[in-house]
C-alpha cells in the first residue's frame, strides 16, 4: 500500500472493491430468473455505491498511488530493471531472472521480474482510470479539491504510462476502464504521457500546505512541480528540447526546490521529503493500512552487500574509478563516492562494522558494493526485506542537469555551465568554466554524460540516458560501453527494450506484436 504522510491527521485507506456476486445453485422445479440468482453483497462497496462523496474520491485516488510501492514497481523490480543495464551496475544475481537483465537476455516467458513490473504498472493505470471516470460525476463540496484529485490521477497515469512506454516500447495505452486494449506505436504512447502530464500541470497545486480540506498538509502527493518536471522529462526523451527547456525553467523559477547541502540526505530516512525531492514513493511500515501488510521496500535487501543483503547487483569498478578522476577544491575524493559505494578504505563503516575487519580474509575485501539506499546507519542488517527509505524518483539536481542539457542542445552551451556548476558546487568540485572553458556542444554533451553518471549512480537513470543519447547505435560508443561494463557484450539491437510479457500476448484479445529480437 502506498503511504500518504500526514502532518496532522492520518487518513485510513479503504480499498475500492468490485461487485461481489453470489450465485445460488438451486435445484427446483419452480421458475427462477437469472436476475433472482445474482445479488450484490450488502457488506461490500460496489462501483455504483462507492463513488458518491469527497471522501470516496480521496480513497479512490489513494488506491491509485498503491502500485508504486509494490514489488513489481519501486519496492524492487522496476529499480532492478532501470539500474541493471547501465554501466554503473553489475547484475550479479544468482537468480537468472535478475541476472539476465544486465546481460540483455530477458525472456518474454520470464515469470517474475519484468512481467511483474508490467502487470503492476498497468494495475496503476487501471486505478487512475477509475478515478478519472468516476470523480468528474461526483457532486463534490470542494471544487478545488476535485481539481487536485483529478490532477493527481492524470499525473499518476502519466507516470505509469511513462514507465510502460519507456521500458516496453509499443504497448497498450488505456485511457478508459476497458480491460482489453490495443497495442499502440511508441509515439502514441509518448503523446498520451505528455497529454496526461499537461493536464496535471494545469490542475495541481505547488504544495498542499494551504488547503484546508481532506488533503491538507499531506506529503507524498504529486504537485505542479512534479508534473512540470516529468512533462519536461517526457519532452526531453522525445528530443523536444525547446519545450523541455521551458518546463524545467518553470520548475527552477518556482523557487520551491533547492539542493540539500549533504548529498547523502537524498537516500536516508532522515532526509525524506526534503527540499530537493520533487516526487518520491513513500514507505513506512508503522502506518500499515491493512493489518499484516507492511508498506516497505526490498531495495536495501536486494542491493545490499554480502552478510547484510543479497547482493543481486553491485556497482562497477568503472563507477568507482570515475568518481576518483576529479578531486574537490580541497583535494579530497568526490563525497558522492562514499554516499554511493561501500569499499575498502580506512574508516569505512558497513552496518556499524569496520569494512576491512568484517571482510578480512574473504573475497569481498577488495570488492565494492551498493551503499545508496542502504540502512547502514540505523540497522545491523537488511536481509529482512523491511526498509522504510523513500524512493526519490525526481530530484531537483535532475531538473538542473536536464535543463543544462536542453540549453546545450538549443545553442546555449555557455549557459549550461551555470546549471551544471550548481550541482558540482554541492560536492565542492572545481568551477567547470575554469577547468574546461569554452567547450563545444559535442564536448558539453560528453561532460553532461559524465556529470549525470556520478550524480545519479544506482538511481535508475543511466541506461535511459545511454539509450536516448543513441550510444547503442554508435559502434564506437558501444565498444566504449563494453570496455566499461562487459555485460554490454550481450546487447543486440532491439534489446534496449524489455519484451512484452507472453502472458499479455496470450490473453489480450487484440493482437500484440513482440518487440524486435525477442
Automatic annotation (TrEMBL):
| KW rRNA processing (keyword) present | no
Q: Where in the cell is it found?
A: Cell outer membrane
Question: What residue stretches are annotated with the RagB/SusD domain?
Answer: 276-518
Q: Which Pfam families match?
A: SusD-like_3, SusD_RagB
Leader sequence range is none
Protein name as it appears in the record: Membrane protein
- The scientific name of the source species is Flavobacterium limi
Into which family does the record put it? Belongs to the SusD family.
Q: Known InterPro entries for this protein?
A: SusD-like_N (IPR033985), SusD_RagB_dom (IPR012944), TPR-like_helical_dom_sf (IPR011990)
Where is this protein chiefly located?
Answer: membrane
Ranges where the SusD-like N-terminal domain occurs? 116-236
Q: Does the keyword Nucleotide-binding apply?
A: no
Q: Which UniProt keywords apply?
A: Cell outer membrane, Membrane, Signal
Amino acid at each position: 500500500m502506498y503511504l500518504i504522510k500526514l502532518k496532522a491527521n492520518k487518513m485510513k485507506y479503504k480499498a475500492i472493491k468490485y461487485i461481489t456476486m453470489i450465485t445460488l445453485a438451486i435445484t427446483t422445479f419452480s421458475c427462477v430468473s437469472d436476475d433472482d440468482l445474482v445479488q450484490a453483497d450488502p457488506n461490500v462497496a460496489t462501483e455504483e455505491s462507492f463513488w458518491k462523496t469527497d471522501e470516496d474520491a480521496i480513497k479512490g485516488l489513494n488506491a491509485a498511488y498503491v502500485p508504486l510501492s509494490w514489488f513489481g514497481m519501486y519496492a524492487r523490480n522496476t529499480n532492478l530493471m532501470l539500474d541493471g543495464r547501465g554501466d554503473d551496475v553489475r547484475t550479479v544475481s544468482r537468480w537468472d531472472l535478475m541476472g539476465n537483465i544486465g546481460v540483455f537476455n530477458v525472456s518474454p516467458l520470464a515469470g517474475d521480474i519484468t512481467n511483474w513490473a508490467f502487470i503492476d504498472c498497468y494495475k496503476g493505470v487501471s486505478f487512475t482510470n477509475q478515478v478519472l471516470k468516476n470523480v468528474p460525476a461526483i457532486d463534490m463540496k470542494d471544487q478545488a479539491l476535485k481539481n487536485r484529485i483529478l490532477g493527481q490521477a492524470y499525473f499518476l497515469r502519466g507516470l505509469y504510462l511513462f514507465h510502460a512506454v519507456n521500458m516496453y516500447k509499443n504497448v497498450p495505452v488505456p485511457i478508459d476502464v476497458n480491460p482489453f486494449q490495443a497495442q499502440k506505436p511508441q509515439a502514441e504512447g509518448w503523446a498520451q504521457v505528455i497529454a496526461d502530464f499537461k493536464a496535471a500541470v494545469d490542475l495541481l497545486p505547488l504544495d498542499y500546505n494551504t488547503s484546508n480540506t481532506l488533503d491538507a498538509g499531506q506529503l507524498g502527493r504529486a504537485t505542479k512541480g512534479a508534473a512540470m518536471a516529468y512533462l519536461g522529462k517526457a519532452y526531453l526523451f522525445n528530443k523536444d528540447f525547446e519545450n523541455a527547456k521551458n518546463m524545467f525553467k518553470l520548475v527552477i523559477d518556482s523557487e520551491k526546490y533547492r539542493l540539500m547541502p549533504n548529498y547523502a540526505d537524498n537516500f536516508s530516512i532522515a532526509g525524506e521529503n526534503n527540499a530537493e525531492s520533487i516526487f518520491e514513493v513513500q514507505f513506512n511500515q508503522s502506518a500499515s493500512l491493512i493489518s499484516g501488510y507492511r508498506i516497505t521496500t526490498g531495495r536495501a535487501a536486494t542491493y545490499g552487500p554480502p552478510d547484510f543483503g543479497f547482493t543481486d547487483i553491485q556497482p562497477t569498478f568503472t563507477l568507482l574509478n570515475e568518481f576518483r578522476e576529479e578531486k574537490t577544491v580541497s583535494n579530497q575524493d568526490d563525497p558522492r563516492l562514499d554516499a554511493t559505494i561501500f569499499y575498502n578504505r580506512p574508516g569505512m563503516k558497513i552496518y556499524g562494522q569496520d569494512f576491512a575487519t568484517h571482510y578480512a580474509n574473504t573475497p569481498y575485501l577488495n570488492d565494492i558494493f551498493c551503499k545508496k539506499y542502504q540502512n547502514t546507519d540505523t540497522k545491523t542488517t537488511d536481509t529482512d526485506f523491511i526498509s522504510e527509505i523513500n524512493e526519490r524518483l525526481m530530484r531537483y539536481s535532475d531538473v538542473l542537469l536536464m535543463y543544462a542539457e536542453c540549453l546545450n542542445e538549443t545553442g546555449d552551451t555557455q549557459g549550461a555551465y551555470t546549471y551544471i556548476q550548481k550541482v558540482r558546487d554541492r560536492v565542492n568540485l572545481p568551477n567547470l568554466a575554469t577547468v574546461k572553458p569554452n567547450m563545444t556542444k559535442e564536448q558539453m554533451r560528453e561532460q553532461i554524460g559524465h556529470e549525470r553518471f556520478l550524480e545519479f549512480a544506482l538511481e535508475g537513470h543511466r541506461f535511459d540516458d545511454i539509450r536516448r543519447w543513441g550510444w547503442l547505435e554508435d559502434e564506437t560508443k558501444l565498444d566504449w560501453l563494453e570496455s566499461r561494463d562487459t555485460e554490454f557484450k550481450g546487447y543486440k539491437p532491439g534489446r534496449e527494450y524489455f519484451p512484452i510479457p507472453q502472458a499479455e500476448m496470450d490473453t489480450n484479445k487484440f493482437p500484440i506484436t513482440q518487440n524486435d529480437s525477442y
